[in-house]
Structures are given as C-alpha cells and as structure tokens.
Amino acid sequence: GENVGLHLPTLSVQEGDNSIINCAYSNSASDYFIWYKQESGKGPQFIIDIRSNMDKRQGQRVTVLLNKTVKHLSLQIAATQPGDSAVYFCAGPTGRFGAGTRLTVKP
Amino acid sequence: SAVISQKPSRDICQRGTSLTIQCQVDSQVTMMFWYRQQPGQSLTLIATANQGSEATYESGFVIDKFPISRPNLTFSTLTVSNMSPEDSSIYLCSVEYSSGSNEQFFGPGTRLTVL
Questions:
Q1: A3: contact with B, CB 8 A cutoff
Q2: Do A46 and B105 touch (CB under 8 A)?
Q3: Which pLDDT value is given to residue B97?
Q4: Buried b / exposed e across B40-62, counting CB within 10 Å, b at 16+?
C-alpha cells in the first residue's frame, strides 16, 4: 500500500494569511487522496479530495494540488481563520493516514 | 453525510480486562472501519468490518486481540481484549458509502485508558 507522510508536524500562521500544508506519498499507483481536518476531541472531517487524473482541485477557500512526478500533494487554505486551527491529515484510498500537521492560527 | 455515534465515549479499565466499543450509524453503509489514534499521533487502521463475514485486519492487528462484529449495515463493535496500558488510545469507527468516493465519515471516538 501507499505510505503517506507529511513534511512538517506544525505550522503557525497569522489570521488572514494563506496556509500551505504538504504531504508526500510513496506509491505511484495511488489514484486518490483525501484531506481531513481534525479538531480537538473530534473525529476527522473530510475537506477535499483529488483523483490522480487531476492536478488541482478547488473548494471553498481550499485548494489541493497534486504533483505526480514527485509524488507530492498540498493543501492550501486561503485567508486562514482561527476556526481553521486543527490537525490536518492527508490519506490515501486504502484508509492510510499521513502523520498530520497541526495548524495554529494566530489572531 | 452520516451521523455516527460511539459508546462509550470514554472508559478507564484495568489491565487484563476487555472492553467492547459500539458504533452505530443512522443509515446503511457499505464499509465500516476501525482506527486507533494515540495522543498527538495519526490514525492507524485496525481493520475493515465486513457485514456477515470476518473482519479484514491490517498488519500488526489480530482477531484474538481485536475481535470485531458487524451483524448488519448500521452497527459494528470492536473489542479490545486482555488490555494493557499500551492499548490506551482513542478508538474511532468510520464509514464509507458506495458512492464512488472513498470519503470516510468518522465517529467521535472512544477514549480508552488502561491502568
């Protein structure tokens, strides 16, 4: 199966700035990725997904970029808000999660 | 989206005992999963709960330690058997619909502490 991991364990940004969270994977056959957000004391919640036939997908204030050449994907959050403070995970199609990045938004 | 509940929400147990965690979904789902998440860490998939057949376990997890039941399409249980302090963790169930998406919906988790 794929091995999904994250570059940075923590990220601190100012409110209103853009956030970028990165994720690397090892299995080039992986065809689907999901980003989840986990707030303290809760289970992970779906944010956005992307299939391998796409390079980019946009949602509300979030964009996921997929670079299959270097097996890397990123989650971009525009105009980060305090409510975005959470741990973010990328996951592959077989339910395997990356290590997680804790995003802290400073007012 | 699914509404998923877990019981108990938390428990403190003695070494050597067993605890059964329940997961109830408000609608029929195709796939149900059990995860473990230790404090400050990521989620580790324990097994896929299959309706009407034995669960499919991930490497490092065995049925004797984590027996799973799934009697129907809305309910599953995970038992943590012969517990030790190393089993202290948050246990989460999740579900997936057969809509072509692999999006999972997670329950709130069960926080287990083993003394």
A1: no
A2: yes
A3: 80
A4: eebbbbbbbbebeeebebbeebe
